[in-house]
């Protein structure tokens, strides 16, 4: 009975200690939101989530509008981060305070304590409300549709000019007809080419 009771007690203690460690490790990766103001006095909040691949989300508000951005990275690669994660995030917030806009200042965040760390350790911007806004008005498809819609009116404008084709366009039409049409159809070809060339 005693050995079993000891085993059960040890097992329960290990579970409790393991849970405590998990909670502590989660605290290091999920710090409480850090609040700061930019040079323009935008009120910002910084939240961290994840365990190895960390996600840093910054949300800011200013009179009449708000913006956000997200960074990802593996700061745990940096030894200094592992020894003092609070200091790391404090340095990140100091870097962001120096900007006029927390999401447009830098695409990569490199706190002093981890500047010499490998590239993967640095927090890189992966999303932003500004990038999303910039991508919306810039699709190429509507711009391509406009020339296609302009093409039929150009053809309509050419029809009145077809009655009096210029001699230069006539000779070009003849050349094209000689190159691309059979001899028996060259006259008809040059006529239609002349119509399209206007």
From TrEMBL:
Which Pfam families does this entry report, sorted A to Z?
FGF-BP1
Q: Which InterPro entries match?
A: FGF1-bd
Q: Which residues form the signal peptide?
A: 1-20
Keyword terms, alphabetized: Disulfide bond, Growth factor binding, Secreted, Signal
Do the record's keywords include Iron? Answer: no
Residues covered by region (Disordered): 133-177
Major localization class: secreted
Asked if Secreted is a keyword of the record, the answer is yes
The compartments listed are: Secreted
Q: Where is the composition biased (Low complexity)?
A: 133-167
User: Member of which family?
Assistant: Belongs to the fibroblast growth factor-binding protein family.
PANTHER family for this protein = FGF BINDING PROTEIN-RELATED, FIBROBLAST GROWTH FACTOR-BINDING PROTEIN 2
User: What name has this protein been given in UniProt?
Assistant: FGFP2 protein
Species this chain originates from: Polyodon spathula (North American paddlefish)
């Amino acid at each position: 009975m005693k050995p079993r009771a000891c085993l059960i007690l040890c097992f329960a203690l290990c579970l409790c200690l393991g849970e405590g460690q998990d909670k502590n490790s989660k605290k290091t990766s999920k710090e409480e939101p850090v609040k700061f103001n930019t040079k323009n006095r935008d009120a910002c909040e910084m939240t961290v989530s994840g365990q190895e691949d960390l996600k840093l989300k910054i949300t800011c508000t200013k009179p009449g509008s708000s913006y956000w951005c997200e960074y990802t990275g593996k700061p745990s690669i940096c030894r200094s981060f592992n020894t003092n994660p609070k200091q790391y995030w404090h340095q990140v917030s100091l870097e962001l305070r120096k900007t006029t806009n927390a999401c447009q200042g830098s695409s990569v965040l490199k706190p002093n304590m981890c500047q010499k760390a490998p590239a993967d350790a640095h927090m890189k911007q992966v999303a932003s409300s500004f990038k999303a806004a910039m991508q919306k008005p810039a699709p190429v498809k509507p711009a391509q549709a406009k020339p296609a819609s302009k093409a039929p009116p150009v053809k309509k404008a050419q029809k009145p000019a077809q009655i009096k084709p210029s001699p230069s366009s006539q000779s070009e039409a003849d050349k094209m007809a000689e190159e691309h049409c059979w001899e028996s159809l060259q006259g008809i070809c040059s006529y239609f080419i002349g119509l399209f060339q206007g």
